[in-house]
Amino acid sequence: MNQITKPVERKTAETGTRPTNYALPRATIREEKDHFLLDLEMPGVRKEDLEVTVENNELTVIGRRKDGELRGELVYRESRPLDYRRVFDLDPSIDAGKITAKIEQGIVKLTLPKAESVKPRKIPVGD
Amino acid sequence: MNIIRYQDPETTLWSPFERLSQLREEMNRLLDGSLAGFAERAGLFSGWAPALDITQDKDTVFVKVELPGLKKEDIDISLHEGMLTISGERKQEKREGEGETFREERYFGRFHRTVTLPTAVQADKVKASYRDGILEIELPKAEEAKPKQIEVNVS
Across the interface, do A11 and B28 touch by the CB < 8 Å criterion? Predict the structure, then answer.
């Protein structure tokens, strides 16, 4: 059994380098029986600034920060004023047309349903 | 049973330039946001430490903390002798079903940050909001800490 069971992160862009002007969001990937769950940390991103696309079986999640402007003068800074971007290769079992996304308190939550044909199915055994 | 196979043909090939660019990115990360990088690494020793920014104008000190995925009630803010402490807990979400987590890069559990404020503030007028995973705290400066225009009469 050679079951491929996770969306694999794609490390190389077309040119072989990752764009450096993006921050890489932390991720959690989980597999359930009939879907995958992908959570990404994108603090400061609102729903309207989130971009999720699937092309050539490649999932791209971009979150644009609009909160970069600091009020007043800077005393101390640790945050990086960068947009977020991360690309994943989709598992062949995923039905790309049925991916859904939402964002809650800076966590992007994607649900990636598996296609009907690959869900485990009980085969009745005849007499 | 799950056998996980690396399926991207490009990444299965030995690709020295990719490694180099990753290294460069990591170096940039260290150098650019030296404090940010340090804060992340500091998390290795003390649970995790969210990134924190402090700014000010003439009336107010603003503190902004990146805290994705918390609940408002799990964040505690306290002020003591010019030190602002933000602490709380990020709880792992309860998941139903018998699924399996493949990758976990996120930090969970308790965090704690204490910073010294640049000026004295009015503790009773502190306001905080939590939106889009960002905690923003507004601390009005104490009257004596505000810059004052002093009129000098030149005779």
Answer: no
Q: How far is residue A66's CA from residue A47's CA, in Å, rounded to a whole number? A: 11
Contact indicator for B73, B67 with CB cutoff of 8 Å = no
CB of A48 less than 8 A from some CB of B: no
Return the number of other C-beta atoms located less than 10 Å from residue B31's C-beta.
Answer: 9
Q: Which helix (H) or strand (E) holds B129?
A: strand B127-131
**Alpha-carbon separation of residue B135 from B32, B70, B79 (angstroms):** 23, 10, 15
pLDDT tens per residue across span B4-45:
444 444 444 445 555 666 676 676 666 665 554 554 554 454
CB contact under 8 A, B25 and A41: no
In tens, the pLDDT along A68-107 reads 677 889 998 998 888 999 999 998 889 989 999 999 999 9
CA distance B66 to B55: 15
Interface pTM (ipTM) of the complex?
A: 0.77
Nearest CA distance, A74 vs chain B (angstrom): 4
Q: Please state the pTM of the whole predicted model.
A: 0.72
Q: Could you give the CA distance from residue B32 to residue B18 in angstroms, rounded to a whole number?
A: 20
Own/partner pairs, B122-126, CB within 8 angstroms, 24+ separation? B123/B79, B126/B77, B126/B79
